[in-house]
């Protein structure tokens, strides 16, 4: 490419394109190429606008026949035969510098927005600006976003909703000791030597002395997993 020479494409059409052109045209414009779209005859203006650069009144034209294209010569000379300010100045544009008559402007890649300094580009936060419909977490990516789920959940095939894969991963479901997953739910379980309280979540040591006929003549003392008998002061325990 020659230095200080703007990159320009002129598209002339007298019908409707057979293939999608909007996406290809957008990529071309974003690369810094100026596109003039000229329609001849009964061409759809929206189609021309999807191809041409902005502002449309300077880059999109509709003429009655091919001979009228010659009348646009002076317009093209004015737009094209100017100093290419992006090449002869330190523009400082993060992504693209777009030449305009006597000056320039900065433009960002798809998925980015121009900052207030009109030069720098930042990733557009689509999680904030669009209705993403993520059930749990929306994660921004350049030009798009993805949905993620909380711990213990998996993403549905729709890419937006979440289902529980590991019930116990969600704060252990409040179980004091152990959380046990089942096929469609969970339950709490206590360590050895403990029993589950009526709330089905917390645990306590069982009162063996109260639960069974311990047979102690004087005092019953609870141990971790059982109990033992002891005598009051001044007495000794018999072999039984």
UniProtKB/TrEMBL annotation:
<dbReference type="InterPro" id="IPR049883">
    <property type="entry name" value="NOTCH1_EGF-like"/>
</dbReference>
<dbReference type="InterPro" id="IPR009030">
    <property type="entry name" value="Growth_fac_rcpt_cys_sf"/>
</dbReference>
<dbReference type="GO" id="GO:0005576">
    <property type="term" value="C:extracellular region"/>
</dbReference>
<protein>
    <recommendedName>
        <fullName>VWFA domain-containing protein</fullName>
    </recommendedName>
</protein>
<dbReference type="Pfam" id="PF00092">
    <property type="entry name" value="VWA"/>
</dbReference>
<dbReference type="InterPro" id="IPR036465">
    <property type="entry name" value="vWFA_dom_sf"/>
</dbReference>
<dbReference type="InterPro" id="IPR001881">
    <property type="entry name" value="EGF-like_Ca-bd_dom"/>
</dbReference>
<dbReference type="InterPro" id="IPR000152">
    <property type="entry name" value="EGF-type_Asp/Asn_hydroxyl_site"/>
</dbReference>
<dbReference type="Pfam" id="PF14670">
    <property type="entry name" value="FXa_inhibition"/>
</dbReference>
<dbReference type="InterPro" id="IPR052080">
    <property type="entry name" value="vWF_C/EGF_Fibrillin"/>
</dbReference>
<feature type="domain" description="VWFA">
    <location>
        <begin position="1"/>
        <end position="80"/>
    </location>
</feature>
<dbReference type="InterPro" id="IPR002035">
    <property type="entry name" value="VWF_A"/>
</dbReference>
<keyword id="KW-0964">Secreted</keyword>
<dbReference type="Pfam" id="PF07645">
    <property type="entry name" value="EGF_CA"/>
</dbReference>
<keyword id="KW-1015">Disulfide bond</keyword>
<keyword id="KW-0677">Repeat</keyword>
<dbReference type="GO" id="GO:0005509">
    <property type="term" value="F:calcium ion binding"/>
</dbReference>
<keyword id="KW-0732">Signal</keyword>
<keyword id="KW-0325">Glycoprotein</keyword>
<keyword id="KW-0245">EGF-like domain</keyword>
<dbReference type="InterPro" id="IPR000742">
    <property type="entry name" value="EGF"/>
</dbReference>
């Amino acid at each position: 490419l020659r230095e200080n020479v703007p990159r320009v494409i002129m598209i002339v059409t007298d019908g409707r394109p057979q293939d999608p052109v909007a996406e290809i045209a957008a990529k071309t414009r974003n690369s810094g190429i100026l596109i003039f779209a000229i329609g001849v005859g009964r061409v759809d203006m929206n189609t021309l606008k999807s191809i041409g650069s902005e502002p449309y009144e300077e880059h999109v034209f509709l003429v009655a026949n091919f001979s009228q294209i010659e009348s646009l010569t002076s317009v093209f000379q004015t737009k094209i035969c100017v100093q290419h300010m992006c090449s002869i100045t330190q523009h400082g544009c993060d992504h693209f510098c777009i030449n305009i008559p006597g000056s320039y402007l900065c433009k960002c890649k798809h998925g980015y927005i121009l900052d207030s300094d009109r030069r720098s580009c930042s990733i557009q936060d689509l999680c904030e600006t669009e209705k993403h419909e993520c059930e749990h977490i929306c994660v921004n990516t350049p030009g798009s976003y993805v949905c993620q789920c909380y711990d213990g959940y998996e993403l549905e095939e729709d890419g937006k909703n979440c289902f529980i894969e590991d019930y116990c991963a969600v704060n252990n479901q409040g179980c004091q000791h152990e959380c046990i997953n089942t096929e469609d739910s969970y339950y709490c379980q206590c360590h050895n030597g403990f029993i589950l309280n009526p709330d089905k979540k917390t645990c306590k040591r069982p009162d063996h002395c109260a639960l069974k006929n311990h047979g102690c003549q004087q005092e019953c003392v609870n141990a971790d997993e059982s109990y033992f008998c002891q005598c009051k002061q001044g007495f000794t325990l018999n072999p039984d």
